[in-house]
Design a protein that fits this description.
- By secondary structure, this protein is of the alpha/beta class.
- It has a single domain, classed as TIM Barrel (Alpha-Beta Barrel), CATH 3.20.20.
- Helices cover 28% and strands 17% of the residues.
- It has six helices and seven strands.
- Strands 1-2-3-4-5-6-7 form a seven-stranded parallel sheet, with helices on one face.
- Helix 5 runs parallel beside helix 6.
- The longest helix is centred in the middle third of the chain and has 14 residues.
């Protein structure tokens, strides 16, 4: 599965996210809505496919905004499956607890842009500092992790990516994700070669790879 290389994983998407990313592909998950999947159905799905599935990616929305996340991850661990958490890094207090309690096996943290642009995503004035705290927490930990930036024209300048990578120095992996417009989003993606060139520049600070290119590199 592309979301967690090396695993055959299923995704569990949680409602709720306070960020206002202009390119969001999960706008329908920002606010709770009717419907969803019952926990018993999640368990039944995992047990039915137990011989094939060896992981669950808990994503969103933003999972760390859900007060039930720790109990959910604990229940998944009780089912003896590996768990990866996708997060935007907005809740360092929650991430610290999850790491201390060993409730996930891997973390993928989205670094949206350079710090100044976080003011466009959140009303919380310290949001960039919160994300930086989560970054440092993961780098200092032993947990498998990766950092990801979606390279959105008009929001992320490819020339800024090495600056972001410098702040991630010591991390295990940095992924530059190609932007794929959703319906109603007009910005054209950068050419694949722009991401490849940026990845080479970022590799001075930590292993970096582009992802989601028209023609994937071997």
């Amino acid at each position: 599965m592309r979301e967690w290389p090396g695993h055959v994983a299923t995704s569990l998407r949680l409602w709720g996210c306070s960020f206002r990313c202009p390119y969001c592909s999960s706008i329908d998950l920002r606010e709770p809505a009717d419907g969803g999947v019952a926990w018993n159905d999640v368990v039944a799905h995992l047990l039915l496919h137990r011989d094939m599935i060896d992981g669950v990616v808990v994503t969103g929305g933003e999972p760390t905004e859900d007060p039930d996340l720790p109990s959910l991850l604990a229940a998944l661990k009780d089912l003896d499956v590996d768990v990866r958490l996708d997060t935007n890094g907005s809740r360092p207090d929650v991430l610290a607890y999850l790491l201390a309690e060993a409730l996930c096996d891997s973390v993928a943290l989205d670094v949206k842009a350079v710090p100044a642009r976080y003011r466009e995503l959140s009303d919380e004035r310290d949001m960039a500092a919160r994300v930086s705290e989560c970054v440092d927490m993961l780098i200092a930990s032993d947990i498998e992790h990766e950092f990801r930036t979606t390279v959105v024209p008009g929001f992320v300048d490819p020339e800024e990516l090495p600056r972001i990578a410098r702040a991630l120095r010591g991390g295990r992996l940095y992924i530059l994700q190609q932007y794929h417009p959703m319906p109603g989003q007009d910005a054209a993606p950068f050419p694949d070669d722009v991401l490849r060139q940026a990845a080479r520049a970022c590799s001075r600070f930590l292993p970096t790879s582009p992802r989601g290119l028209t023609i994937e590199d071997d």
